[in-house]
Design brief:
Length: about 260
C-alpha cells in the first residue's frame, strides 16, 4: 500500500470576515471587496491567545475592476417636501453626469446595482413618495453605509449610495476622478454631495476565475508531492467550496 502525503488545498479563504460567492445563484455580477479585518467578537482578545488565520498560499491575485466610494446627497431645507425635491433633483443630475463621464452610481450591500433614471424610485422609494416594504429594508442594511438608504431626521434629508469608476491606474487617480465628478454636480437649493469613508474595490463575477484557481491548486499539489517520491500520493479537498475574495493591496484582490 502506498503512503500518503496530504497536500490539502481549499478555495475558501480563511479570513476573519471573508466575502463568499454563493453556489447556485447563476453567477454574480460586480461585487464589493473589503480589506481584511478581525471580527468584532475577537477584537479584545489578548495578543498571543488568538492569532487571525492566514490566507491560503494558493490563489489568484489580480487587479480589481473598479473603485467605489460612498457618497451622501443631503439637504437641510426647512420643509421636508422641499428637501426631498432638492435631493431628487441632485440625484437625477448626478445620474445624467455619471453616464456622460464614464461613471456609475450604484447601490447594494454586496452585489452592486446601477442606479438609473428608470430604477431610482425603486432604490429610494421614500424619496419618490413610496413606501418601502420590510423585505427591501432588510436587504439594504449595510454597516459600511454603502447600500441604498434614505433618512430624514426632521431637519435633514439624505440618501446614501456609491460612485464607481473603472480602475485603470493608481488608486489616487481613481480618487481624483471620483472627487472631480462629485464637484461637477451642481447643488439644487440647499442640497450637496458629501464623500464618506475611503475607497473600496470591486471585481466582476468572481466565479469566472474558478478554473484558473483549480489549475494553480493542481500545479501546487503536484509540486508539493514531488518532494516525497513516487510512493506518495496527494489529496486535494475543498474544490466544491465557495470562492472567497479579499483586498490585498491598494489596487489588487486575492481570490
Amino acid at each position: 500500500m502506498k503512503n500518503s502525503a496530504y497536500a490539502v488545498a481549499s478555495i475558501v479563504a480563511l479570513f476573519a470576515a471573508p466575502l463568499l460567492a454563493q453556489d447556485g445563484d447563476g453567477g454574480m455580477g460586480e461585487v464589493v471587496v473589503t480589506a481584511q479585518r478581525i471580527s468584532n467578537n475577537m477584537a479584545n482578545v489578548p495578543v498571543g491567545i488568538f492569532q487571525p488565520p492566514s490566507p491560503p498560499v494558493i490563489g489568484l491575485k489580480r487587479q480589481a475592476d473598479s473603485a467605489v466610494r460612498n457618497i451622501e446627497i443631503v439637504s437641510d431645507s426647512r420643509e421636508e417636501a422641499m428637501r426631498k425635491r432638492e435631493v431628487q433633483a441632485m440625484l437625477l443630475d448626478a445620474i445624467d453626469r455619471a453616464k456622460q463621464g464614464g461613471f456609475s452610481l450604484v447601490t447594494g450591500r454586496l452585489e452592486l446595482v446601477e442606479v438609473t433614471r428608470a430604477n431610482w424610485q425603486d432604490q429610494f422609494p421614500e424619496l419618490a413618495g413610496k413606501a418601502r416594504d420590510d423585505e427591501d429594508e432588510d436587504s439594504d442594511d449595510d454597516d459600511d453605509g454603502g447600500s441604498a438608504a434614505y433618512e430624514d431626521d426632521g431637519g435633514t434629508t439624505a440618501i446614501r449610495l456609491r460612485v464607481k469608476t473603472r480602475l485603470d491606474g493608481s488608486i489616487s487617480n481613481a480618487q481624483q476622478k471620483i472627487s472631480g465628478f462629485v464637484k461637477s454636480v451642481p447643488a439644487t437649493g440647499r442640497s450637496l454631495i458629501e464623500q464618506k469613508g475611503g475607497l473600496a474595490l470591486t471585481i466582476i463575477n468572481p466565479d469566472q476565475y474558478r478554473d484558473e484557481i483549480y489549475r494553480r491548486i493542481a500545479a501546487g499539489a503536484k509540486h508539493a508531492v514531488s518532494f516525497y517520491g513516487p510512493d506518495y500520493g496527494v489529496e486535494v479537498n475543498g474544490l466544491d467550496a465557495d470562492i472567497a475574495w479579499q483586498q490585498v493591496s491598494n489596487t489588487e484582490v486575492f481570490l
